[in-house]
Amino acid sequence: MKQKYILFLIALIISIYFAACTSESYNYDKVSTEDSTKVKDSVQVDKAEIQKIMNSKKTYTVKSAPTFILSLAGQLNIGNSELSLNDNPAQFLEGQNFGVQNGWGISAAGKFPIDQKSGNFRILVQSGFNHFSNAFARSTATEFGTVQYNIISLGTGLENNFNPKFMVKPYVGAAIMGSLVSGKSNYTSSGVASVINIKNSFRLGFTVYAGVEYAVSDRIGINLGARFTNINTWLKKSSMDSDPNNISLRDAFSSPHIPYGGWKNFAFTSFNLGTSIYFGVKNLIFKF
């Protein structure tokens, strides 16, 4: 990973920490009471006094943790490892890289707290679509042609939200993901044009991430985060196909070597921005 991305992640984590230290999920109105540690004896309060307390305008409000969260986000993807653009068609043909680097994606995740009372640890179910192209963020494609991939993913994992009852909610998480990878390329090498279709190929991988949610209200929030994903950690494979122009993803070492085959990690860093929809948030109101 490039140094500037590492520095960005460090800055993001530090900002999340300090934001969490200063956030509040409660409010109070002109409450003036003695330190509770000084109270030694209990006091009997009659019904009239209880009613007087209930009618007081002085309140202390605490929000409960959400019982379910739906997160939707868009993301910018920056390739790592062998997912780095190289305009040399010979290296793409030899399987040294995937021929692309940057892309975009969308994702949706459902989060279920394991303990409804605390709301910290959550079971995560997520899905996503990512697209990579060597023409992404360029006015034109590369000189030798175009290469692009589509990835459809579904995964499950765990997430820890440090302050689920507060306005600012930093979190970290990890998930195992199953993905279908497909793609196509149309390039020219040594004056010979080649059109390759990459069939849907299943791979297992993982993602780790960190971010922060800001609750605009009890129902909706803004989320911002970063993640690292490796789509094909497991089940790599390189094999010959009956049709040389219609092949499976070739991302494992093979002997003898075959075109496009080579040990490659489909790994990338993502920066995402989206919204979180909260369900089941309640206000616990204490009157004084």
Provide an overview of this structure:
The chain is mainly β and 288 residues long. The chain has a single domain (3-26, 58-287), classed as Porin (Beta Barrel), CATH 2.40.160.20. Helix content is 11%, strand content 50%. The strands form two sheets. It has an eight-stranded antiparallel β-barrel. A three-stranded antiparallel sheet has the order 1-2-12, with no helix packed on it. β7 and β8 form a beta hairpin. The chain is elongated. Mean pLDDT is 84; it is low at 25-37.
Entry summary:
The chain has three helices and twelve strands, in the order αβαββαβββββββββ. It has 288 residues and is mainly beta. It has one domain: Porin (Beta Barrel).
* β-sheet strand percentage: over 45%
Helix share bin: 10-25%
Describe the sheet with the most strands: 8 strands, antiparallel, barrel
Element string (H = helix, E = strand)? HEHEEHEEEEEEEEE
Question: Which architecture per CATH?
Answer: Beta Barrel
CATH classification class:
Mainly Beta
> What does the radius of gyration come to?
26 Å
Report the total helices.
3
- CATH fold group: Porin
Overall spatial form: elongated
Strand-pairing-aware structural class: mainly beta
- Give me the count of strands: 12
Ends: how far apart?
Answer: 55 Å
The main sheet orders its strands as: 3-4-5-6-7-8-9-11
Whole-number tally of structural domains: 1
Low-confidence stretches: 25-37
Q: What is the average per-residue confidence, as pLDDT, rounded to a whole number?
A: 84
